[in-house]
Structures are given as structure tokens and as C-alpha cells.
């Protein structure tokens, strides 16, 4: 039975990915700060899991070291860790401020939730990932804002660029693992709405739309690297 740890799984992309993994029979460790929302999502996942698969939902803030230790401990108790998805995060100040007056405390928080928390959780789980016979998989959810210069996206984009670089270096330091920085593309989620306050974002695809291709990536031997969900081939997604 494969075990996956998905952060930020109470809504949006993390919830969609965790539901997809549950349907495929994975045991899961999930988190999010809002306990009620997390438990509601966890119940949906339990209904999809086959007998024997387990789900552990731990409410907490990924920027806190003790919470990250709890998540890794839960994976250990389930027998190990085959997949870590560092997905949790928030937009930062909204509406998106230009860099000339970007609040530095907001920038610090973005770096805490993205590169610092992601690396912290990788450090907590690296021994479990290394012990996976087929090679543990690590997905760090990135963004096109990591590589494009969009006005207003400098703080968020800088934090995501740091995530990309951590993924790239981790990949060469840990050749037995598959490490992917993954840009999911624009998705209709709470965070995306916060980025475009008052705008109708109903033309953006639902997070479910990228799940089949990402599940296929997880099962594949595709080399480590930076990927865009839009470039992943998935017959399931196309059908
Ligand atoms: N939506 C897009 O268009 C888009 C595009 C490119 C990249 N992304 C990336 O995709 C990922 C998911 O975003 P989304 O659009 O699905 O956002 P979302 O709908 O706002 O979901 C974010 C999830 O992360 C959790 N979370 C936020 N801060 C947390 C913290 N400090 N500790 C633990 N959990 C936390 C949230 O739950 P709580 O609030 O209850 O903690 C929620 O479950 C993010 O890394 C984002 O940067 C999104």
C-alpha cells in the first residue's frame, strides 16, 4: 500500500490531488490549518479509499516545525512514505502590491510557507523517502510566477523561484529520488480568486482537471526536473 503526504489538502489543488490518490488506493497524511475544513475533506477521501487504506488528517500550520514533525511521524506510523507533495500555501498580500511598497513582513511569510516549510518537511521525511524501494517522489508545487515577471507577483514569485531552486538542487543531491517542481497552471481556487479580487474567474479550469496527468507522473519514471502540468501527457486527461 503506497503512502502519500499532501499538504494543504483541505481545498483547491491539494484536496483534488488527495482525492485522486485516495481513489487509487493510497494511504494518506493530509494537513491544513482549518480543522473543520480538513476533516470534511478527509471524510470525502475515506469514502473513496479501498479497505486497508488509511487516512490521517492533522490540522496545523506548515510553517511550524512541530507540526511538520507530526506529519512525518504519521507517515512513519503508516509504514513509510512514497510521495511528498508540498502544496500548502497562500498568496500573501492581496491585492498584489508592487515591489516598491511590498510589505517585508508579507515577503517573510511567503518565504516561510513556501521554501522554508517545504525544505523543513523534506528534511523531516527524507529518510522515509530514501527507504522507498522504487525511489520516493517529491512534488514541490510551483507557479509560472516563479519564472515570469508579472507586476504584483514579485513577492510570491520570488518565494516560488526559491522553491524551484530547492527542487533542482535536491534532485542532484538525491539521485535516487524523483523531485519535480510542478507548475499546475491557472486553476479556479480560493487563492486564484484572491489574486484577482472581484473578477470572474469561472473560465479557469477546476483543480480536478490536472489530477489525472499528475497521478500518471507520480507513477512514472520521468526524471527529476521542472514541469508544467499543461505539458504532461495523460490519456486519462485526454479521454
Ligand atoms: N490556483 C492557481 O491558479 C495556482 C497556480 C499556480 C500555483 N498554485 C499553487 O498551488 C498550490 C495550491 O494552491 P490553491 O490554488 O489550491 O490554493 P487554495 O485553494 O487557497 O488552497 C490552499 C491550501 O493550503 C492550505 N494552507 C494554506 N496555508 C497553510 C499553512 N500555513 N499551513 C498548512 N496549510 C496551509 C489551505 O488550508 P488552510 O487555509 O485551512 O490552512 C488549503 O488547504 C499553492 O502552492 C499555490 O501557490 C496555484
From TrEMBL:
Membrane as UniProt keyword: no
Coiled-coil regions, chain positions: none
Annotated InterPro entries: NAD(P)-bd_dom_sf, Sc_DH/Rdtase_CS, SDR_fam
GO MF annotation terms: oxidoreductase activity, acting on NAD(P)H, oxygen as acceptor
SUPFAM superfamilies the record matches: NAD(P)-binding Rossmann-fold domains (SSF51735)
Keywords: Oxidoreductase
PANTHER family, sorted: BENZIL REDUCTASE (PTHR43008), CHAIN DEHYDROGENASE, PUTATIVE (AFU_ORTHOLOGUE AFUA_4G08710)-RELATED (PTHR43008:SF4)
Family to which the UniProt record says this protein belongs: Belongs to the short-chain dehydrogenases/reductases (SDR) family.
Name this protein carries in UniProt: SDR family oxidoreductase
Species the sequence originates in: Candidatus Dormiibacter inghamiae
Lineage of the organism: Bacteria, Bacillati, Candidatus Dormiibacterota, Candidatus Dormibacteria, Candidatus Dormibacterales
Amino acid at each position: 500500500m503506497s503512502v502519500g503526504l499532501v499538504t494543504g489538502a483541505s481545498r483547491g489543488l491539494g484536496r483534488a490531488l488527495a482525492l485522486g490518490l485516495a481513489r487509487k488506493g493510497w494511504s494518506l497524511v493530509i494537513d491544513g490549518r482549518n480543522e473543520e475544513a480538513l476533516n470534511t475533506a478527509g471524510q470525502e477521501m475515506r469514502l473513496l479509499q479501498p479497505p486497508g487504506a488509511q487516512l490521517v488528517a492533522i490540522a496545523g500550520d506548515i510553517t511550524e516545525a512541530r507540526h511538520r514533525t507530526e506529519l512525518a511521524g504519521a507517515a512513519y506510523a503508516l509504514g513509510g512514505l512514497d510521495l511528498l507533495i508540498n502544496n500548502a500555501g497562500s498568496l500573501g498580500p492581496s491585492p498584489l502590491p508592487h515591489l516598491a511598497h511590498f510589505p517585508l513582513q508579507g515577503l517573510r511569510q511567503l518565504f516561510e510557507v513556501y521554501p522554508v516549510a517545504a525544505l523543513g518537511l523534506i528534511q523531516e521525511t527524507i529518510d522515509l523517502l530514501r527507504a522507498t524501494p522504487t525511489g520516493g517522489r517529491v512534488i514541490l508545487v510551483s507557479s509560472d510566477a516563479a519564472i515570469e515577471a508579472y507586476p504584483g507577483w514579485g513577492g510570491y514569485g520570488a518565494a516560488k523561484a526559491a522553491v524551484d531552486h530547492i527542487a533542482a538542487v535536491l534532485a542532484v543531491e538525491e539521485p535516487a529520488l524523483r523531485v519535480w517542481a510542478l507548475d499546475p497552471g491557472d486553476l479556479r481556487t480560493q487563492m486564484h480568486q484572491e489574486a484577482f479580487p472581484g473578477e470572474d474567474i469561472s473560465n479557469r479550469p477546476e483543480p480536478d482537471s490536472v489530477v489525472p496527468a499528475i497521478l500518471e507522473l507520480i507513477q512514472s519514471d520521468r526524471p527529476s526536473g521542472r514541469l508544467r502540468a499543461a505539458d504532461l501527457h495523460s490519456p486519462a486527461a485526454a479521454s
